[in-house]
Each structure stands twice: as C-alpha cells, then as structure tokens.
Amino acid sequence: MGRKFASRPAAARMAVSALALVLAGLSASPASAGFTQTFGDGKSLSIGLGMRGSYTSAEDGAPSGSDRSNEFNLDSVRVFVSGSLSDTIKATFNTERDGDGNLKLLDGYARFEFSDEFNIWVGRMLPPSDRANLDGPYYINAWSYPGVVSQYPAKFAGRDDGATVWGKLLDKRLTYAAGAFKGHNRIRGASNQGDNMLFTGRLAYNFLDVEDNPAYYTSSTYYGSADVLTLAIAGAYQEDGVGTAARPGDYGAVSIDALFEKKLGDAGAVTLEGAWYSYDTDGVADVAPGFGGASGTANVGGVVAGEAWLIGGAYLLPAKVGIGQFQPFVRYQTFDPDASRFDTKQYDFGVNYVISGHSARISAEYSTVDTGPGADSDRFTLGLQLQF
Fold it and tell me: Is the pLDDT higher at 16 or at 268?
C-alpha cells in the first residue's frame, strides 16, 4: 500500500536492461539458454526455447505417390516468455512455428494467481480438456501426437481465446479447471451465428504422488521420478457449435483419461495410459475445414461425431547407456465415427532415448494407420526434442 511505481522512463530502462541480460544469457551458450532475471518485490522476466525436429519415411509419401518419402522436418520451434509484476499478477507469451515456417502466437494470457486453490487466466491458452491436449507434443510418451482420438476443436495447436478459472485442492490432489472460449464455427454461413461460447472443464484426482506440473497442465510420463495414479474427466459444450447456419447443431464432448506410473526400484519404471472419448454433433454433419474461406487456424469445421479409445504403455530401463536411458513404448488409437462403418486405427511402436527428461530426448517411432479396407499405410520417424 502506498508504494510508488517506477516512472515510465525508468521502467523502460529496466525493460531494456532485462532484455539485454536475457539476450546475453541466450548468447552465452546453448546450455544456458533458459534464463530468469529477477528484480525484487516479485518482479521477474523469463525466457526459454523448445524445438522438435524429425526425419520421416512414409509409405507412398513421395511426390510419385508410390515411393517412400524422405523428409526432414522442423516440427516445432517455440520461444517461451513469462513475466511477473508481483506474486499475483503475471503473464505468459509463447510462439510456435506454423506450417509455412513462420513464428506465430501460441499462448498469450494474463495470469491472476491468488493461491493454489484459485486462479484466473485470460487470453489465448489451452482450454481445459484431455490429457493428450494438455501434454502437447513435448510431454507425451510417444513421438507423434495422438490426433486420431484427441479431437477437441481449437484455433491453433489446441489453443483458443477465452478465460480459465483453475485451482488445486485437497493438498493439491484435486485439480479443477473451467473455462469459456470463443469457440467453433464463428464465420458467416456456419452454425455459430449467435456467437455462442464454448464451455470446457476438467477434474483430475491424484491417488498417489501429486503430479508436478504447472497449473492444470499434464505430462504422460515422469521417467520414474514419481508413483502416479491419476483419473480425470473432461468435457466441452457449445450451443450451435457444429453444422451450417441453416442447420446448426449443438457440440458436446466428454473424455475420461487415466495415467499410472510406478517406480520399480532397480528394475526401472512402468507407465500405463488410457483414455476414452465421445464426440456428439446433435445429429448434424459439420462443415468442412476451410469453409467460407476460413484459414487453417480459424477453428472452423471438421468436427466428427464418434467414439474413440487410446491405450498406451512404456517401460523405462534402469541401466544408463551412455548419457541416457532407453524407454520402449507402444500405443493404440481407434476412432469409430457415427457416420461411417469403418474405424480409423493407429498402432505406434518405438523407443525413447531419455537424456534429460522432457528437456532432451531422441525418439524412434514406427506407426501403421488403417482407415478401412485397402487403406492402410505406415511411416517411420526419428525425432529429436530439446527444451532450454
């Protein structure tokens, strides 16, 4: 109370000095790229970097349509920036590489964090949803994102614009999150002519060790650092969320996910994961993505009614080989659309070479995808993930 804030010129000089310190930290060496500068009284500025690159050979993926592809991809480049004005008022700004190779806004939200039990975020963020979406590509077990089953609508990389209230109760064992977002099909001619919001929510309970994640985010493995048994339910609803303006339908989704990870002492660690999804479009067929000239990040079209399942497992070998540990994994996904008698199935087999948890790992993954009789394909991916 009564504390004077720095003048604008002084604040500007402080910001410039902080940026210079950050850039100096980034240029010192790759290992020191993660950087936090504190200014006292709860003020700080942090910056970090994440990247995922891969080589993929896909069946019939070459331009000829009949030869295997040989593709080197920069799958993701993220710059993470966060700052705080006090212990309560904070903000996050993250970027991501889009399909054209340009950096664009991934997250941008103000954080009003009052206590473990009650907080409010406002801006562009991950809506409360399933574990896969809250893991994102950097914190899942397998290399590839489980897009066969995880199909909550989003603007870009699972994000949407809105607000979330979240907190952790019962000694942080119970995590809740509920949000209201801009939502799906807000474009002329599509279903949402009334600007109805998308409402989402998630409840997760930790029966063993509490999962150590920021806010309501998740991970699908802790590489044997914790004994985890977590069960969660998530859901979403939007009036007139699917279809056309002439024939709109309400969108609804519910999912249940579970994660079990057990340390086996000198025998390593085992991880098991499962999820069930149900997507409902009120008996209405949604418009196609790109409807009305919408961009690929406009959150328009593409929602399909159906039921989906995911089952996965991994085993972290105890022995260290060189600078890391091997973690073989398997995963099965299936999506049964209401409007088709053919399921989509995907089988993933692979191994992670874990150097420093989610911050440094190499992954090899073989996947087969079956979308119907005579419509199966396979691919092999070798990926590298780094976070600083």
Answer: 268
